[in-house]
Amino acid sequence: MPAQTVTPLSVLVTTVLFALFLSLTAHLAARNVLGDVDPRRALYVGPLPAVVSVVGGGFAVPAAVTVTVAFALDAVMFRWSYDQPPRVVAVMTVIHAAVTILVGVVLGGIALLLSTRPT
What we know:
By secondary structure, the protein is mostly helical. The protein has helices at residues 8-34, 47-58, 63-82, 86-115.
């Protein structure tokens, strides 16, 4: 018995939620590097890496390829959205990765704790 059924709607919702999560962490990274920035600019950063991640996972593309392409697209979108020099874009991309991992681990830990609570 499969753990879950994959439907086009579930893939779409997963991609949209992941894109919003990446946009939120992109805004946190941009604020860390640039100071006060327009949060709407971060909405451009999240969707492409999210699509690459979901498609890469769905087609069993090796993680090294998926992560490399997602990082490259993340940097391209930071460059396009915030119009910064390459060195600043590189710093923003690294900080975005770190913030995304940290927030993801915290949210995953909370979900794990909530899933093991007594009923």
